TrEMBL record:
One of its GO terms (cellular component) is lysosomal membrane. It holds the Pfam family CLN3. The keyword Transmembrane helix applies. This is Battenin. GO terms for biological process: lysosome organization; regulation of intracellular pH. InterPro entries: Battenin_disease_Cln3, Battenin_disease_Cln3_subgr, MFS_trans_sf. The keyword Kinase does not apply. Belongs to the battenin family. The chain crosses the membrane at residues 25-43, 114-147, 167-187, 199-219, 341-358, 364-387, 399-421. It comes from the Eukaryota.
Amino acid sequence: MCYSFPFCKPLFSATCTKWRNWGGFWLLGMCNNFAYVVMLSAAHDILKKQETHNSTASVTLDNGLQTGNSSNTSHYDCNPTSTAAVLLADILPTLLIKMSAPFVIHKVPYGYRVLLCGLTAAASFLVVSFSSALWMSILGVILASISSGLGELSFLALTVYYSRDVVGGWGSGTGGAGVSGALLYSGLTQLGLTPRTTLLVMLIVPCAMILSYFFLLVAPSSLPQWTTERSQSTGLCPEETERLMDSAVEDDDQDRSTQSIVTGPLSVTEKLHVMKGLLKFVLPLGLVYFAEYFINQGLMELLYFPNSFLSHAEQYRWYQTLYQVGVFASRSSLCCFKIRRLWVLNVVFLMFAVWYQFLPSAWIVFVIILYEGLLGGFAYVNTFYFISKETEDRHREFAMAMASVGDTLGICLSTVLSFPVHKYFCSL
């Protein structure tokens, strides 16, 4: 049968293809960032697990993980190691990949990249689930980081072969990863599932990534799927191909695979020129994410309210969940409006809140964290939309991959600052 999906028979057209691709990129965004989000949501539990192994005074659960709070001399109730340690393992490999891979990744076909992303994501869940030492847990987090970093730069580069609106689908999907990952982890552990069982259940997500890419997306003729050379065949019926090409002529935002694409790799000079032009996008994005992740991994753990009905670990999980809810809402807003500039002052307010402890309730922090997530999501999705819109066709694939380093660099710098801040407050 010539049609890929029976339900597309009556209207196998550019509209059907457009929605399949939008949905495919939504699922790819969700699956790609899922493991990364889950590891951040589990950061407190990962560190608590290792503390439990090393302490004879701890109350241990049947799976080796502990609830409750660390015993220490600081009124901030700190883990011996900051949750920024998990963030560092979750983001540093991503940064290294994003800074180096765009120069050579064009030599690896997209099909192999997606398979590698799925396998490393699955391995991350397995390693963290069955870890018996901190180094094993960190290794699992590193595997999640490799999957997320390689996937993000690959899928952002992949958007240049499709209509521009798939950038909105990707952005919304990455926001959906935040909500689904943080909410599922927080919710399932709150209901009584052990963190180990929860992580094993989530193995379905890497499988969904692979299925979405190979069976939901409509592969354009120019996409280098299994070879670095662009194929000239779409696998569609002649009449379907003709309809898609006619639609592309009518609407310049339709599948860009039907338009002429200048082939051949960019020279080093061209790449440096593109990188220079990206600074106006990358630097503001990095600043926003620096502020946000300094809050998330440097201050969140210290914003503990002992009189709440939620334990310290539960409060931390729900901070992460509400942040991701805000991210999802704002990353899904591209179809409604676009924003070029954002200013972030949350980090200053929360720093004073940690220092002077003047906030009376965790509920106030919940509202602030939700607003913080909205700002981060707006910054991310609008940055890549305007890069896609304003970059030359020949440079767009490299630019979309290279610009993904902006948020990652900001997160890494925030991690460096989080360690001394954690140490300072926990020594009080």
